[in-house]
Specification:
mainly alpha; globular
C-alpha cells in the first residue's frame, strides 16, 4: 500500500467534526479548518444545494487512512 500524497484531496478523519469534508478541503488548499467550517455553516443560510453538496462530497472523497 502506497502512502497518499499530501496534495491529494482526502477527508481528514483525524480532525473531523462530522465527516471530515471541510477539514480535508482546508488541509488540501492550506486554509483554516475553523474558517472553512464557519463559511459552510453561514452558506447554509443562503438558498442553494450546500447541504446536498456536502453529502455528495462525503460519499465521493475517500477517507484518509494514514492515521
Amino acid at each position: 500500500m502506497t502512502t497518499p500524497s499530501p496534495y491529494r484531496l482526502r477527508r481528514d478523519t483525524r480532525h473531523k467534526m462530522v465527516a471530515g469534508v471541510c477539514a480535508g478541503i482546508a488541509r488540501r488548499y492550506g486554509l483554516s479548518r475553523g474558517g472553512l467550517r464557519v463559511a459552510f455553516v453561514v452558506s447554509c443560510v443562503l438558498p442553494g444545494p450546500q447541504f446536498l453538496a456536502y453529502l455528495l462530497l462525503w460519499v465521493l472523497i475517500p477517507a484518509d487512512d494514514r492515521y
